[in-house]
Write a structure and sequence with these properties.
9 helices
Length: 252
């Protein structure tokens, strides 16, 4: 099977967690604490993945300058785009707290498009990372796939629950998340195709851009939800996620 198709399938797998989360959020009422614990664990896994599989690997390939420039650029682009979307109804797209969702829906009654764009904003850098990880040796970064999958579940869950409360139809909601999952697969495939043959410094810059965007996303959207639901245990759960990912990357 061509490597580009493999990258697309891995991206589709990680993106499918949005649809899985949407199904759970639509049909299964979960306590906020459970969703927050998943978010905290996923945040720890993502931090581990971007530290050891993105930033460290990018530094080995391209040195400090492209890593520093890409890292700051990724964080800046994500922050500006997230700021714009937050003021159009996507601020609490990863929140499972009912009051937060209701307040967002009251202020932005037609925020479905903003939520979808927010999910794309969160997911495209992650998907590109999956594709780029296949450039070296043709083996996917398994930790990155797991990290993205775990972070997508609560996003799909909370957003779908919010859309249901707004009176959206199930077919439209599930079609939306299925479409975003497909875009995630396409982004992963493009991440491999576009950057295949690019000099190491260029690949390092792209990895750093994705890492900066992901870290900004974690702090802006995942950490608040994790702490709000688990309070004093958020740090411990995140450390467990970090350790699990680190062990998987080193012992696998």
């Amino acid at each position: 099977m061509p490597v580009a198709i493999q990258a697309g399938l891995w991206g589709l797998l990680s993106g499918s967690a949005l649809l899985l989360g949407a199904l759970v959020g639509w049909f299964v009422p979960l306590r906020q604490r459970v969703v927050a614990a998943i978010m905290a664990f996923g945040a720890g896994v993502l931090i581990s993945a971007l530290s050891f599989e993105l930033v460290d690997e990018a530094w080995r390939q391209g040195g400090f300058a492209p890593v520093a420039g890409g890292f700051l650029a990724g964080a800046l682009v994500y922050t500006l785009a997230n700021y714009w979307l937050s003021h159009r109804g996507a601020r609490h797209r990863k929140r499972s707290h009912e009051a937060k969702r209701e307040a967002q829906a009251d202020k932005h009654p037609n925020n479905g498009a903003a939520l979808a764009l927010g999910a794309l904003l969160d997911g495209i850098p992650e998907s590109i990372v999956i594709g780029v990880s296949l450039l070296e040796g043709g083996a996917v970064g398994l930790v990155a796939v797991i990290a993205v999958f775990l972070s997508n579940i609560p996003e799909g869950l909370s957003s779908a629950a919010g859309m249901k409360a707004e009176g959206k139809k199930a077919a439209g909601v599930f079609g939306l998340w299925a479409g975003i999952a497909i875009v995630s697969g396409i982004s992963a495939a493009l991440g491999y195709v576009v950057f295949d043959g690019v000099p190491p410094e260029g690949v390092a810059f792209v990895q750093a851009v994705a890492a900066g965007a992901i870290l900004a996303m974690i702090v802006d959207t995942m950490v608040p939800e994790a702490f709000e639901g688990t309070h004093d245990f958020a740090g411990l759960i995140s450390v467990a996620g970090f350790l699990a990912a680190f062990g998987l990357s080193r012992l696998a």
